[in-house]
Amino acid sequence: MPALRGVDLAIGRGELVTVAGPSGSGKSTLLHLLGGLDEPDAGRVFVDGTDLATLGERERTLLRRRRLGFVFQTFNLVPVLSALENVEYPLLLDGRPAGERRDRAAEALAAVGLAARSGHRPDQLSGGERQRVAIARAVVHAPLALLADEPTGNLDSATAAGILDLLLALRRERGTTIVIATHDPALVARSPRRLVLRDGRIESDSAGEAPR
Ligand SMILES: Nc1ncnc2c1ncn2[C@@H]1O[C@H](COP(=O)(O)OP(=O)(O)O)[C@@H](O)[C@H]1O
Ligand SMILES: [Mg+2]
Fold first, then answer.
1. At residue 210, does pLDDT exceed 70?
2. How far, in Å, from the CA of 116 to the mean position of ligand 2?
3. Is the pLDDT assigned to residue 208 strictly greater than 80?
4. Residue 187 in contact with residue 160, Cβ under 8 Å?
5. What mean pLDDT is predicted for residues 163-180?
6. Which of 166, 164, 137, 139 minimizes the C-alpha distance to 150?
7. Are 163 and 16 in contact (CB under 8 A)?
8. Ligand 1 site-directed mutation target among 4, 29, 34, most atoms within 8 Å of CB
9. Ligand 1 mean position to 85 CA, how many Å?
10. Annotated domain spans of the chain
11. Which atom from ligand 1 is nearest to the alpha carbon of 31?
12. Cβ neighbours of residue 104 under 8 Å, at least 6 residues apart?
């Protein structure tokens, strides 16, 4: 059975959209397709006007590395690296020089309120702080879009609210497009645009509804 069917979706630059729906409804699959981590069996995915199917492996990797950022429920930080080194890592992969890496990583950590924690390793940080480091890492290269898969799934509700505050601020201050898969009703309630998936189909999209 296909994980997604008949999904026809356009997300504009600078939008913040939550994708909700029960477990198995296709949220992660949708994010993987949007981010070029997965290819659809049928249908097409455009990112910034480019049909992902027209890109080779190398070009797709570069698009992911330069234009997109990813955040996961489990943070996925490198345990032996400091917060600053974790945030620098994508710039290292992209071959940026050391001075630029350090400056941009420090700036990204400051933007998530963690300037004072830059030398700490992940195991010396709280869950909320780890996710802030992961967000700094995901936006250090100023991506067009940030794709976050259950970013608050491992956090208590107050910490989760703080993470959403941060994502809303990123969108407001930098115009980053943000797509968040979540089944947290408190996050969905504060989202400017709310999409709900069920059995791989779009059950509702608040963008198509009359204003409340
Ligand atoms: N790699 C995979 N191969 C085959 N089926 C998968 C794979 N990943 C997820 N699925 C299936 O696709 C559907 C949607 O899963 P997923 O996108 O992970 O949902 P969600 O993130 O909403 O929990 C489920 O039926 C799941 O079992
Ligand atoms: Mg999922």
1. no
2. 33
3. no
4. yes
5. 95
6. 164
7. no
8. 29
9. 32
10. 16-208
11. 17
12. 88, 91, 96, 140, 141
pLDDT tens per residue across span 46-75: 999 999 999 999 999 999 999 999 999 999
Exposed/middle/buried for residue 49 (C-beta within 10 Å: 0-12, 13-18, 19+) = exposed
CA contacts within 13 A on the Cβ side of 75: 21
pLDDT at 209: 73
Nearest-angstrom CA–CA distance, 22 and 94: 36
- CB of 21 closer than 6 A to ligand 1? yes
Hey, what long-range contacts does 132-135 have (CB within 8 A, 24 or more apart)? 132/163, 132/166, 133/75, 133/77, 133/83, 133/86, 133/87, 133/109, 134/71, 134/72, 134/75, 134/76, 134/77, 134/86, 135/71, 135/163, 135/166, 135/167, 135/170
- Ligand 1 pocket, residue 128 CB under 6 Å: no
Q: Scan for tokens 């703080």, then name that residue.
A: 162
User: 16-208 has which fold?
Assistant: Rossmann fold (3.40.50)
> Does ligand 1 come within 6 angstroms of the Cβ of 26?
yes
What residue spans of 37-116 are helical by DSSP H? 57-67, 83-93, 98-111
The letter for the amino acid at 166 is: L
